Amino acid sequence: MRISVIMHADFETPGVIEVWARDKKHKLSIFKPYQAQLLPTTEEFDFLIVMGGPQSPLDLEEAPYLKDEIELINKAIQTEKIVLGFCLGAQLIGEALGGKTERSPEKEIGIHPVSLTPEGLKDDLFKRFPKTFNVIHWHNDMPGLTKDAQLLAFSEGCPRQAIRYGARVYGFQFHMEITQQGIAELIKACPDDLRAGKFVQSPEILMNQSLEDIHQYMYLLLDQIVDKGVLN
What we know:
Elements: E1 2-6, H1 16-23, E2 27-31, E3 47-50, H2 65-78, E4 82-86, H3 88-96, E5 102-116, H4 118-122, E6 132-142, E7 150-154, E8 162-166, E9 169-172, H5 180-189, E10 199-200, H6 203-207, H7 212-227
Parallel strand pairs: 1-2, 1-3, 3-4, 4-9, 5-10
Antiparallel strand pairs: 5-6, 5-7, 7-8, 8-9
Helix pairs in contact: 2-3
């Protein structure tokens, strides 16, 4: 499988997605439009993964290259590619389909649980997941909804944590791919995000939690994407 990954900051890498791709013998290519790198064309990939980042669709003029990403996402969806977005990436998928990004009711930073909705419990991607499970959060915004979108998961601080936009198109406001080193780099790069809040954990708590179960969920979800037959 040919996987194209779009990054938005050096400190938000694909993390364990790279480990999974290597183990499964997939070809993974990384693109950094924030460094003025050209984006791939839809002919270059089977699976598009759009990562998180400090940018916001609520202020596209601050990062105009996001407009090109939105156009690429739209083309990828129209050509029936697999499209998966995390955090900012999920918001960009919503934008590509006409769903406008909104502020989350609460800022969430840390390891917090999400819960599957009745629709999420029926979705093939989550059929081997528990109803409630821990994930990594680092966000202020949340993806917009479209008339065809299905809400799959929510948290206490944010009602839109996982969204199915189409048979091959999913957006996750949360993260499962970030490594311990990735969290350390986020703490260093975004100290202002760590101001006290109801769902904001301290750097000490962030750095002293095991991510092993979360990473296993990431591998499981990626396997489910393949097993679901979305490549057929």
